[in-house]
Structure formats: structure tokens, C-alpha cells
Amino acid sequence: MPAKNKKSNPIAGSERSLRSGSRLIGPCNPEERIEITMRVRSRGILPRPEKTGALLPLKRRYLSREEFAKVYGAAQADLAKVRAFAAKHGLKVVSVSAFERNIKLSGTVRALSAALDVKLMEYAHEDGNYRGRIGAVHLPAGLVKVVTGLFGLDNRPQARPHISRAMEHSEALARGGATFTAPQVAQLYNFPAGLDGTGECIGLLEFGGGYSASDLATYFKNLGIAEPSVTSVPVDGVSNSPGKDPNSDGEVALDIEVAGSVAPGAKIVVYFAPFTERGWVDSLTAAMNDSVNKPSVISISWGFAEGEPVQGFEWTQQTVLAVNESLQAAAAMGVTVCVASGDNGSDDGINDGHAHVDFPASSPYALGCGGTRLTAQNNKVASEVVWNDGVKSGEAGGGGISAMNPLPAWQTGIVPPSVNPGHAVGRGVPDVCGNADPVSGYQIFYAGRLTVVGGTSAVAPLWAGLLARINQKLGKPVGYINPLLYSKLGKSVAFKDIVKGNNDTTGHIGGYSAGKGWDCCTGWGSPNGTSLLTGLGG
Prior knowledge:
Layout: E1 8-10, E2 23-27, E3 33-40, H1 50-53, H2 65-72, H3 76-88, E4 92-97, E5 102-108, H4 109-116, E6 121-124, E7 130-132, E8 138-140, H5 141-144, E9 147-151, E10 160-161, E11 164-167, H6 169-174, H7 182-188, E12 201-206, H8 213-223, E13 230-234, H9 246-262, E14 267-272, H10 277-288, E15 297-300, E16 302-305, E17 307-308, E18 312-313, H11 317-332, E19 336-340, E20 358-359, E21 367-377, E22 380-386, H12 390-393, E23 400-406, E24 426-429, E25 432-435, E26 442-446, E27 449-454, H13 456-474, H14 482-487, E28 495-496, E29 526-527, H15 529-537
Parallel strand pairs: 12-14, 12-15, 13-14, 15-19, 19-21, 21-25
Antiparallel strand pairs: 1-8, 2-6, 3-5, 3-9, 4-5, 6-7, 10-16, 11-27, 16-20, 17-18, 21-22, 23-24, 26-27, 28-29
Helix pairs in contact: 8-9, 9-13, 10-11, 13-15
């Protein structure tokens, strides 16, 4: 590793460790060019949204994106310091945004390694080879106070689509289920009638794959629904690219088709980004600060397990801070962010004998969306239980206790201790739920064929579509509603309490069980959309 400059200091929270199972290939090509993002501090202390979030939406005042940037954007003096640092070390300034608080730089591995006191190596892993580093990133003492995070040196895959495996309709029937279109699920959940999200914009974050215009046209034509406006926004060089990864394409199609069919009057904007920590930070920043499309609801059907207690967290603390700050900013601007809680039950796919939750669903500023198995009779819900396909499948709705995000004040007295050793109490996930089991899955159209999929991936856009309808009716976005859910709405008729099932797919870590009131499997429950509109409208 390069010798440390005595005048340099580590960026707080930038420490990295290797992903479990990684194998060293060798040094990176010193002439390879890399693009990174430096995130600088806000000019003001970011507003705490908890107090506002406990108010009914019509009693709130949100900041416009322009107002927020004016008060909480980056100072020009701070950006100038980063520019000077880049010039000194032969790095190219790609873009600068005081609005988004970032400056993007590019340089060779050799130049970046010397400037930042890091050693970049290539590693092999079953999830995909990646460029990685060990330890912290360093900056001069005067600059480390300005920069709150640096992203892009490490490009390990850091996003997984929460879409459960596709199956034929006949297979779902053979397993005792019955599949639905998204509008049918909306009807079962009593979404408010006569509304279609007109005037609203739903943002979708995607980390791979793409959509086909012909697939979307066929899907909406088959439903007899006018096709919504769908546009894409590239982030960090990643754009709409269908055909490369069927699983990612299925995720993108699911998100668009679910949100678009339950709120066809809303504009759908898809933000495509790399599936890395930098992709997370830059795509969220782009969506939150999009002053052209101005999404009022954002749906995220991707995530990654919080970490491995024995070997350290996969997410760096600087990324958790950056993501939480972006979601905090969204709350101040009246944007609701719905995030899938994961499809691997209480261990979230980390086979280390411990329970885990998914981030960013575990952010206190996200609306975590869990999963159920739904059956219907005579156009009404006949039964609804926790989605859990058992040990053999390993698939179930994600949920549990965060090890990275502390217990929010609005969850005090509600969240139980973790099942992990030490029994810590942190942010409880999820907040709400909806149909997610592929046995009671969603009919979607992609890659030229009709198929059935499940996953909490479907729940986040379903909730986004519901909130777009409610925003339309209220004439004002509902924004950050978590505190309101826990102080009042969660215990009301706005939710159907799910009391049966658990999310342990291992048979040995314990997991969590559903019960009366809030729980770590289904949150407050599935929505009664019309009652929720009434409750949010006061």
C-alpha cells in the first residue's frame, strides 16, 4: 500500500474490508481510468423530518427542490477546494453540482491511488469480479473536513433485485395459488376509485437491465389500460439496456408495469445506475434533486443485506450516511420513498447463522415494504399470511432489526429485541406489506412473453402507485409518513393486520413471527387504500 502522507487523514466511515469469499487476482491496471464521486458537506444542518412526519400531510409545508438546494446545497468554496485538489493530482473534473453536493472526477488507477493513499486490487467472487480496496480513503487534513464520502474506487456489486423467481401460471395453480394482475391486487386492497395518479410522477431506481417499449405496449394493451408516459434517466453512464440480464429485465418490467397499471395517469421516470455503492449514492441524489421530472414518490425494488457481523458490514458507513441523507432530503421535499424489504426471510441470504435486514429498507427515512401470500374469493381477500416458501426455497418476506440504523423515536416501545446474540434493538423493518409470494404472484409481460413473478419487488411499486393516487386526491404529496403510521394510522382500519406466519427460512436462527399489531414480518399490515386516503386526509 502507498506510504501515507503525514498530512492526510481518513475519510470517516470509508473503511472497506473484502467481501467474504473473495480471491485476489492481482493489482489493477495502473493506466485504467476510473470515475469517482466526491460528496461534500451541506451548507446547513439537514432538517430533521420526524416532527413534520407526525403531522397530517395537509398541515405540512415542504421545501421545493430549489429552496432545499439554496439552504442545504454545497458551498462554492468547498467545491473549489476539491477542484484544487483534483488539479494538483492530475485528476479531471467531469461535473460539479452544488445542487447535488457532489463533484465527479476521473483519473488513472495510478493517479487516484497516489492522491487518495489507497491500493486498488482485482478480486474474484461468485457474485462477480470486482475492483476493491482494504482500509480507508485518505485526503489532506483541510479537505477531509469538507468531503463526507468518496465513491467509485470499489465497484463490487452492491444491489440485488428483490424479484422472486418467475413461474408459469399452471405451476402457481398446482401449488394451490392463484395469480393476479396488479389492478386486481389494487382492487382487493380497496385502492381509492376514480383516481389514476394524474399530475404525479413516480421515480423508479434500477441497477441493471432495461425495458422494451413493445413489451410495455403489449402489457397495457392486454389490460385495456392507457399506456403511461415512461422515460429513462441515465446515471453514471448506465442507461436502459434490455436483453443483457433476464432477471434484471424482469425487475424493471415488474416495477414499471405494477406502478404504471395502478396509477396509469402518473408519469413514470426510470433512473438507471451501476449496481455499486456509487450507483446508490448518485442515483438517489439524481432522483431527489430532479427539478425537471420532480417525482413525488420513489420506488426501490433493490437492496443489499446490511452485513456480516463476524467480518464487518458490506455497506460502508459513508454510504449509509449518504443514502440516509438523501432520504432525509426527500422527506423535507415531500417525497415518499418505498423500498422492498427483501426476499430471503430473516437471514436476508447471508448464511452465517445470524438474522439480517436489507438496506436501504432499514433506513429510518424509507417506507419498508414486506411481503405476504394472498388468496381471494368473490373479489375479496379470503386470507393473507406472511410469505414464506420454507427452508428448501429460502424465499420469504424480509424483515427484522437493523444493526446499522438505531431505533427511531417513533418506534419506541413497539420493536422487539433482535434474535441475534446481544439482542440489540434497532430500526424495525418493514413498515407495511402487500402481496409478494410468487404463488399468488403478479402477471407481467417482458422478453416477449407473459409470466408470473413475486417478491417484495412488487410491493414497493404497488405502494408507490397507491400513494400517487392519494397524492392526486389530496392535491399535495403525503411525503414522509413513517412517524404518522406509528403514532396513529398503523393501528387504524387503514391496515389489515397480518397475524399468521413467520419469516425464518433457515429452521435454526429463530426469525420473527407475525402477531397482533406491528411485527417484523409485515409491519402494520396490508393497505385498505380508501381508508388510508381518509386517514391521511384527516
